[in-house]
Amino acid sequence: MLRIDISPRENEKPLISNLILAASLLAGLAAIGVVFLAKGVNPFFAIYKIFSGSFGSMYGFKETVTKSIPLILIAAGLTIAYRGKFWNIGAESQLLAGAAAATWIALTWAASLPAWAAILLMFTGGFIAGALWGIVPAILRVRFGINEVISTLMLNYVGAEFIKMLVIGPWKGKTQFGFPYTDDFPETAQLALLGNSRIHFVTLIIALAVSALVYVLLFRTRFGYEVRVIGENQEAARYAGIDFYRTTIIIMIISGGLAGLAGVGEVAGLHHHLTYPESISSGYGFTAIIVAWLSRLNPVTAIFSGLFFAGILVGGDAIQISLNLPAATVNIFNGIILVFLIMGEFFQKNSVTINLQGAKWNR
């Protein structure tokens, strides 16, 4: 007779947690290898091409750093939200809100301002726009009990359609000759790039600084303690006098605001105009969820997991050309990794005992 017993682990040992994380990644890569085999592609060669395309050349590495910037920023905000058990799936639309706000400021005010003032105003506006977009599902949850997974996910579609409406409607550029873009930003609203690359180093510096600040906020302040208590046990948090309403709102102000900063970086650093949502973001809001989980909800280690997944995005573009694989390959890769990380999280927090005809297996 088969019996499976699941019980919470009393103590999560760091060594065991790290081994489970490594095993999850290896299992995920093995599963991805099966997908490549099903497509008639050598999995070892495919995985080699992915990482050599992103880390094996200076050009690939520069592109990897460029794509890591929004991932690091968004993941830093998601670590706060997920620590407080607020499941923000809407970073994609929060990024778009920040991009839209930056575009409005750039086209309305930047030409009459010095560059430093225009850039500062754009980042401030982008943060506020992303924060306001993030507050909506927070209020829906704390006041009306609406599940934040549904509300944040649905707002992604609202945000995307809103951006499309702007670029083909009232904001359509008169100088773009029919293309669905706004007019280009004035030079004072364009971020400088690092050397011969597309790395907008101002946003990169912001992303690295934000990761350190969020770490301090989470683990060295009273607010961070309240967030973690709410994440562990909401009833205990209420009993301890923690203001659940206020804390949840602040969580989403930070999480949404940081995603908004990522949107500013994309339009001011790379595109220099607002265009279709899928051109502004390569699914950064969704990929950053995996980045946050791989970092174990630590904003500092999210820097490294952000580089890792940025490498997958860059390498995924390479194998589309060299191995003639579909564009969805990267999404499959990311999805499989996320599934195995969640499975690893389960085994990290729970002990599973299997009894089979008198024999016992414990994990």
Strand percent estimate: under 5%
Q: Which structural class should the secondary elements be placed in?
A: mainly alpha
Helix count equals 14
Radius of gyration: 22 Å
Strand order of the largest sheet: 1-2-3
Shape: globular
Uncertain parts: none
* Proportion of helical residues: over 70%
Rounded average pLDDT: 90
Q: Mind summarizing the main beta sheet?
A: 3 strands, antiparallel
Q: How many strand elements?
A: 3
What order do the helices and strands follow?
EHHHHHHHHHHHHHHEE
Straight-line distance between termini: 19 Å
Describe the structure.
The longest helix is centred in the middle third of the chain and has 30 residues. Helix 1 crosses helix 2, helix 3 packs across helix 12 and helix 12 packs across helix 13. Helix content is 70%, strand content 5%. The protein is mainly alpha-helical and 363 residues long. The model has no long low-confidence stretch (mean pLDDT 90).
Question: Can you describe this structure in just a few lines?
Answer:
This protein is mainly alpha-helical and 363 residues long.
Summarize this structure as a short list of keywords or feature phrases:
three-stranded antiparallel sheet; 363 residues; globular; 3 strands; mainly alpha
Question: How are the SSEs placed, and which strands pair?
Answer:
Elements: E1 2-8, H1 14-38, H2 43-55, H3 58-83, H4 91-108, H5 115-144, H6 148-168, H7 201-220, H8 222-232, H9 234-239, H10 244-271, H11 277-280, H12 284-294, H13 302-322, H14 329-349, E2 350-356, E3 359-362
Antiparallel strand pairs: 1-2, 2-3
